[in-house]
Structure prediction request, 517 residues.
Amino acid sequence: MTAPNIVVILADDLGFSDAGAFGGEIETPNLDRLAATGVRMSAFYATPRCSPSRAALLTGRESHSVGIGILTTDDRPHGYAGSLSVDAPTIAERLKARGYATALVGKWHLSSDISTPNETWPTHRGFDEFYGILPGASSYYRPPLYDGERRLDEETTADYYLTDDLSHRAADFVARSAQRGTPFFLYLSYTAPHWPLHAPEADVARYRERYRGGWDRLREERAERLHELGIARLIESAPDPDVARWTDAADPEWESERMAVYAAQVEIMDRGIGTLIAALDAHGVRDDTLIVFCSDNGACAEELPFSERRMNPDICPPFTRDGVEVMVGNEPGIRPGPEAGYSSYGRPWAHLSNAPFRLYKRWVHEGGIASPFIVHWPGGGIAGGEIAHAPAHIVDIVPSILDAVDEPGDGPGVSLLELWRQPGSGDAPAERTLCWEHMGNAAARRGRFKLVRESGRPWGLYDIEADRGETADVAAEHPDVVADLEAAWQRWAEANGVIPWERVLEDFRQRGRAVPQ
Prediction:
């Protein structure tokens, strides 16, 4: 078989049920078509935070073991390195050694030092080309763009929008590689729909009416569609006590505007994926391209402002291109959408995005780690629109890609290639245990059971096949399962260099640093 092209598309903070193919009401026709002619996974897991997921995706290793325990600025005497370890090869390095052209278009967020080019930058980690941003977030209208290791200091044009720019650059890389007849690896790492809420008015306007009905009804509708699609059974969904009923919303007009902007960001990303697919089609290489799509974690319930981000001009420019002061925060006086506002969509809408699951990005309950997942490769036998229900993890992407190019994998992940080719053929290895840790939040899943805890709280046990909403703790009924999974999690933590969160907190206190949010 001719070496397949590889395209990995990563969304940023996209909720499990945002895309149409996963029950959402947001217009995502291109993702929906990939799903209808590819394979979806109903139980694919990322990590609960952006940098750890990127580390795991690119190396096939647990993120703690390759220097990324929290985010990328966590270097301290008893902490994680805060940069992706140079000792762990990336999939770009592996494929480049096999003659692939390689490119990262979008967000990196795996280097603690982004002031000066160094060995942790993408151009030193196997990527022939890098076009995008180094930090974890930025303005969509005025981002800190790099082309290779060169900062682009020229001002963006009046009609500039980051997601569109990334999509066109990705399509250009595909076209150039296909014209040369070179197999290519493209890592398209969107910043969308991560805050800030930035989107052009024409795209926002299409969603205003859609969200005036509120988050309660829409969450119920998404859960019903997930059931109808065969992705998730109609489960009991635990309401978030910190989310008010829509009828009690203090300013429903402003609230609906926030979600309208978020939905526009998702649709623009999907439109960009359509631009990429059109480039594959134009050069006759779509069938021979393995396309993988997922999110880096669950939906984000973070509220702005974060003072340290407000002070960083790369992440949040203090003024617009026209010299207007940028206003940061989640309040009705700050309009979401235009460049002069810098907001997030908040916990209630994140609760919708993660329907029907519990909690959000940062936590390791299903709402924090369950990711929509689509894979498409007709030339490799991955087609038909079926759904695979076996649990899988983001560390499995590297061994799956290596399997597709006939190279043996290593590390903790397993190849999902045959499962994708025959989604109804069975589950992942029967005794496989998947584990997570982030800021003291911890979980372990094996088969039908998932052991999970919030930081500082006791373990809970859930029958995740019957109760994926994690509403009924069955720990008292299965003490042997609790003990077994807790021991398995402890072995995993020790093997991968997980630092006890209490020790990390103490280090923050001693150094007078703010604890990450």
Remarks:
- Residues 351 and 424 are 31 Å apart (CA to CA).
- Residues 252-282 form the longest helix (31 residues).
